[in-house]
Amino acid sequence: MEKESDPSPLAESHLNPTQEQAQAAGGASTSYSGKLPVMTTPSNLPDRPNKIDAGPMESLGKNVKDETQYAPSAESKLNWYIVKLTLAAGIGGLLFGYDTGVISGALLYIRDDFPDVEKSTVLQETIVSMAVAGAIIGAAYGGRINDKFGRKPAILAADTVFAIGAVFMAAAPNVAMLIAGRILVGLGVGVASMTAPLYIAEASPAQIRGALVTLNVLFITGGQFLSYLINLAFTKTPGTWRWMLGVAGIPAVLQGVLMMLLPESPRWLFRQERRGEAIDVLRKIYPKPEDLQQEVEELEAAVSADVERPVSSIRAIWQLFSHKPTRLALTAGVGLQVFQQLVGINTVMYYSPSIVELSGFASHQMALLLSLIVSGLNAIGTIAGMVVIDRFGRRRLLLLSLTGVIIALAVLTSAFHVAAHDSPSVNFSMDNSFSSLICTKQTVVSRSHCTGCLQAGCGFCADSRDENLPGMCLVLNKTVGDLCGENTWFTKGCPSHYGWLALGGLALYIITFSPGMGPVPWAINSEIYPLKYRGLCGGIAATANWVANLVITQSFLSLVKGIGTSMTFLFFGCITVVAILFVLWFVPETKGLSFQEVEQMWEKRAKGQSNWRHGFVVKEPDTNSNLGQA
């Protein structure tokens, strides 16, 4: 091994990998069977403990008697350089999370400033979902940007667009400019959402890849938590929602500065035949020479395999779908991303304060405070997921998480159903000062309770001494709300004895979703695709995530208005049952596998050499059986 300042001998030794060159580079001989290099370790190399059972992967080396591979040593698993790369790239997740959380609080005050928004649930959904629409475009083009220009330029472009969008939103004089800013922010979030986990995964040793990619999800939940803190901080400030949305540009600028100081992904550099630069980066990730040697050989193998099936820009998607192993991987990846949204997570994150108000808490400040608690639980759950994902496994974590989500949605369904029948009655006998403001719509007269009052598009003025006593149903506008005085003015949800049950269901939902369905779809999508398709497949999966996100965010308030809050959560519960069946049938376990081993796993599945009914695992400790139970 040459000195760190001169990587060229190692780089040259892998341009034409003969046994003599391999011995000169690291003292190991390499035999080729046409596709993948196979390491045979001579006696003069130091022993490397921590062997990983290669399971059924005999094709990795017929000349190796014990059919095992060496794992990176503990020294190479995590170092400060990897931490710096992860933290800088993870700010992309912070942008994602901040935008998700901040709009939920800002929307409460946007409704107050723009009367048209207050009157139209469709316009409210549009303000929220236009960022998602922009993210769909960003994610769709993000894959090609990543493959052509690299991970680093993609992140820098996302930061620039996001910062411009934040300025547009903060300065918006009307709803149209606000929506334009939301679209720009969404473009940045879309590119960052699929690039950040990809960049982190490609700079991570296999044994800690899941935890590091999950750290990106922790940044997402941390961004959501930060957004609720910012929302609370600006509740009494003039221009409330403008400050909330404008602050979003700060982390984008910060990440742009940090990324200028960091290298490109070593795997992308290898793909571009810039091996010298790639090895310079890999030396910092794998300080021990033998670990560096192994990683370089695996990358050479992946690039050599790509050369056999060259991809042109015109035929890339066709070749992707015609290659069965990649098609199977894409099915699993896209399905997970879609179900992550369809089980309802972003109805909770985008509309959390609104859901709190629907459960019977009228105060904006109280809604934001309770939403902050929910967001904090999300961050705690994500940290728990980081701890267990590389020990417990991706698949088990998904199944447990989805089971908990079903229970939580059942609680939410029951809570809102009971609350709808527990709302206080309407008092039609009142003093003359309010007689001209009485809501006289037929729904109110016939049903005579708070729920009917709000469904008729009116407001409910509850007695502040006991909100569950009969109250007044009045015409809905800001002036009348002010006239309600010291009493409590309800416009979204009715007071109920069971509001606490809805909050408990909301908390349970976040606690069970965040360790599994939150980070695992992103972790799996960062590691299941072949190198040459990784950017494209990651873009397709992220686009699918955002399309599903758009469907949910654009329809949630309309669903609540049309079929009721209780039935809406029941609908999400039914989708979650389907998600469990999908995981059981399509999603493999990838815990502890290198990228090359994951590719081999899909090859075996495509040939029908795996026990699909029970799921499949490539490696289990101390077993040489075909496939372990997931």
From TrEMBL:
GO molecular-function terms, A-Z: transmembrane transporter activity
Gene3D superfamilies, alphabetized: MFS general substrate transporter like domains (1.20.1250.20)
GO BP terms in the entry: transmembrane transport
Biased composition (Polar residues): 15-33
Record bears the keyword Transport: yes
Segments of this protein annotated with the region Disordered: 1-60
Membrane topology of this protein: Multi-pass membrane protein
Domain Major facilitator superfamily (MFS) profile stretches: 85-591
Segments passing through the bilayer: 85-110, 122-142, 154-173, 179-200, 212-234, 240-262, 328-351, 366-390, 397-420, 498-524, 536-557, 569-587
Matching CDD domains: MFS_HMIT_like
Domain of life of the source: Eukaryota
Keyword rRNA-binding: no
Family of the protein in this entry: Belongs to the major facilitator superfamily. Sugar transporter (TC 2.A.1.1) family.
Protein name: Major facilitator superfamily (MFS) profile domain-containing protein
Organism per entry: Physcomitrium patens (Spreading-leaved earth moss)
